[in-house]
Amino acid sequence: MSTSSSTEGDGSDGGGGGGGGGGEFEGPSSSRTRIRSSNGVWPEPFVEALAFQVAIDASSSIGRLAAAQALLNLFQVCSTWRAVSHSELLWQNLTRRIWNIRHLLHNTWHEEYIYRHRTANNFQLGRYEYTSLPFVPSYRNNNNDGLLCRRLALSNNHLAAGFSDGSVHLFHLPSRIQLATFYPEHRDRFGRFACAISGIILSDAQLVFATLDGDIHLVIINGVNPLRRVHLGDVVNDGALVDFSGCNQWWVGLYAGVPDRAFHVWNSETEELIFVGGSLTDPEAVMGWHMLNELTNFIGRVRVTSHESAVACTNVRVMVFDLRNVGIILGEEDIHRGINIGSFDANRDESMLIMDMRGVARVRRVTTLEEVCRFTVRATQRGILGSINGGYALMCVGGVIRVWEMVHGEYLYSFRERIGECNAIVSNERHVAACSASATIHIWDFGAN
């Protein structure tokens, strides 16, 4: 989870892009009347479709930022072709496909595309604004182990940080102000770390968080209703909830402790539990129980993608399963060199990051497990943490955050700030956030003004 700000743009009129390959154009623009060119060749709808395909091909083969130059070259052919650059539908289609953005945050889709391009360009070049967030730790349970940050989550305007005492601190990123602190509802709990945060799902509308004993709480941000518990955990029958992830349609919990109950899936709109099953974490059952009294190494991770699938891993296996047909396994693989679980992550663009215990990191497509690129982290410590956004992989090693691009696996740079031992890291298209052992939350903002 993270936060960050700005830098100068590259001055191109077209923005930039990258993203998926192929695909059909979604249709001609209806924003203006189409007129054939004077010689009856190259009608505007055709040029618009060509522009879309040229940008997608460039982003697929070279990277998202390459789409801008490809479009610029095409628009310079003649005035008729340049007129296509005014099509809002073209920019909407490109923004959706290349940047995976479905909701307009700026005045027009053209402005949205340019903003996304410039922000990604800032990421590519390492232009960011750094700050740390001031907040007062709670130490609610008075554990002698200190306050350990367990999870971070980002939305466009908010950051949430969840800790070992069950507290979740919510911040407003533009102002860097702490808005609120939330605690799970009180009840008798099994184990002194039973209320430690095991996962956070955050949007600008609501905050959902889960604890190790399986309780799930929800609060509407800027709403009048108080925090409420939407699911009462049953740790005896389910085991420990070791990771929790989701989106606006699904919540997925990864459990360890009871055989054949590794995954729990909820419909997030109705808050109904619709599936329980899976044996992924059966070998880690004992470790799951130990987590309630001792916050040891990661047992597993689960992530939800934008195409209604989820990917999860333990230290030896990765598994992809369908959320539309819950229980259907789409792919699985044993990783013979083992998986560094702390470095595992996946994004909404159907890419995941897996690093083995020898320090070799691979970016793979979630749907097929096909390898996209690989790079070497040159470190095998268990304390390595990783995160990915739409185009970049970040690895925190020894208090230093390093950045790779995810098309060719090229190493780019490391952050200037040294943060010491890191407990949690998260990133999105604009921000990177990390929390160090001193309970300091660090924010890097790459946003384009």
TrEMBL record:
Residues 1-36 are annotated as: Disordered. InterPro entries: F-box-like_dom_sf (IPR036047), WD40/YVTN_repeat-like_dom_sf (IPR015943), WD40_repeat_dom_sf (IPR036322). Gene3D superfamilies: 1.20.1280.50, YVTN repeat-like/Quinoprotein amine dehydrogenase. It comes from the Eukaryota. This is Transcriptional regulator STERILE APETALA-like. PANTHER family: TRANSCRIPTIONAL REGULATOR STERILE APETALA (PTHR19855:SF31), WD40 REPEAT PROTEIN 12, 37 (PTHR19855). Residues 12-25 have a biased composition (Gly residues). It comes from Olea europaea subsp. europaea. The lineage of its organism: Eukaryota, Viridiplantae, Streptophyta, Embryophyta, Tracheophyta.
